[in-house]
Amino acid sequence: MREAMDPWTFVVASYAVGVGATATMVLWSLLSMRRAEKRRDEARKR
Questions:
Q1: Which residue in 4, 11, 34, 39 has the fewest CB atoms around it within 10 Å?
Q2: Phi-psi region of 42 (alpha: psi -120 to 50; beta: other; left: phi over 0)
Q3: Confidence label for 16 from pLDDT (cuts 50, 70 and 90)
Q4: Is the pTM for the entire model greater than 0.85?
Q5: What's the rounded Cα separation, in Å, for the pair 13 and 41?
Q6: What Rg, from alpha-carbon coordinates, does the chain have?
Q7: In angstroms, rounded to a whole number, what is the distance separating the alpha carbons of residues 11 and 17?
């Protein structure tokens, strides 16, 4: 039995958090951009 901590669990978890956060930011930016473009188009129609 080993008493040393296995760092790979934390490495994999940090990559998962990093990829998840990046995907969330990309989705949030995409939705914000679409809302802004919709508001711009509505303002041009008036």
A1: 4
A2: alpha
A3: very high
A4: no
A5: 42
A6: 21
A7: 10
